[in-house]
Design brief:
The chain is of the alpha+beta class and 258 residues long. The chain folds into 3 domains: 89 residues, Ubiquitin-like (UB roll) (Roll), CATH 3.10.20; 26 residues, no CATH class; 69 residues, Roll (SH3 type barrels). Strands 4-3-7-5-6 form a 5-stranded mixed β-sheet. The protein has a 5-stranded antiparallel β-sheet with strand order 13-10-9-8-14, with no helix packed on it. Strand 9 and strand 10 form a beta hairpin. The chain is elongated. This is Similar to S.cerevisiae protein NIP100 (Large subunit of the dynactin complex). One of its GO terms (molecular function) is microtubule plus-end binding. Belongs to the TBCB family.
């Protein structure tokens, strides 16, 4: 708060001039951006002008996950969007925890606070992160999923009317007994024989049951207690029609002597 004195003339002629006090209020908040390149965070926030360096570090920890003792702070000019072209106008080097950070830095609205991790840690590339993935058939067989919940109650797209409208038509040659090649999701094509084609109880839409020539399947022709065809264990699989290619396919010869 600023207090300014101004002089005013008396209302009556000849009266002495007397001071008039005027009060000018400055905003108590600053609007600044926060950029943490190492963890991929960029956001905008309003900050109290009276904030100390220690208080700022604790608030930044909640935003970025970088502990206060590992933070390296810089103040960048307003509108900075490219880290490679950024030029810090102030840093936290040599400042005490109780320093009024915005006053020391002479910060103003629009400027950017860059938060770096002194430990050198960065977010890993998503492509390098190991993922746990399920095939559509494995997911359909689980009893603890949202899909199984909706199916059991015939809700949403699993309602009878919705399922009938969404069901695709089968090719005319995709019938029980037809030889086929199946994409089982393991990046290999498997040979087999169509044993079932139609609607199921474990998932909406049309499914194709195939008896494979090799024991690389998921079942014996039954899924969740319902039998759709008969096959030896691990010779059966249920896939979508898009993963089945019917044709003149010879049986896999597993007895070839090398």
């Amino acid at each position: 708060m600023l207090v300014r004195h101004a002089w005013t003339d008396g209302r009556r002629r000849g009266a002495a001039r007397r001071p008039r006090m005027e009060v000018c209020c400055l905003s108590t908040m600053l609007h600044l951006s926060v950029w943490a390149p190492g963890v991929g965070i960029r956001t905008e926030r309003r900050w109290a002008r009276a904030l100390t360096l220690a208080a700022l570090r604790h608030q930044l920890e909640r935003m970025t996950g970088i502990p206060p003792e590992a933070q390296s702070l810089e103040l960048w000019p307003a509108g900075t969007t490219d880290e490679s072209r950024a030029s810090a106008v102030a840093t936290d080097a040599g400042l005490t925890p109780d320093a009024p950070i915005w006053d020391v830095w002479r910060a103003h609205d629009g400027m950017v606070v860059c938060v770096r991790d002194r430990r050198g840690r960065t977010m890993p590339d998503e492509a390098d992160v190991a993922k746990w993935e399920l095939t559509d058939e494995q997911y359909a067989a689980r009893p603890d999923t949202l899909r199984s919940f909706l199916q059991a109650r015939q809700l949403g797209r699993y309602a009878p009317a919705a399922a009938a409208a969404a069901a695709p038509s089968l090719p005319p040659d995709m019938v029980p007994g037809a030889r086929c090649i199946v994409d089982t999701g393991d990046r290999f094509e498997r040979r087999g024989t169509v044993r079932f084609a139609g609607a199921t109880q474990f998932a909406p839409g049309v499914w194709v049951g195939v008896e494979l020539d090799e024991p690389v399947g998921k079942n014996d022709g039954s899924v969740k207690g319902v039998r759709y065809f008969s096959a030896r264990m691990h010779y059966g699989t249920m896939v979508r029609p898009a993963h089945v290619r019917v044709g003149d396919v010879a049986e896999e010869d597993l007895d070839v002597e090398l």
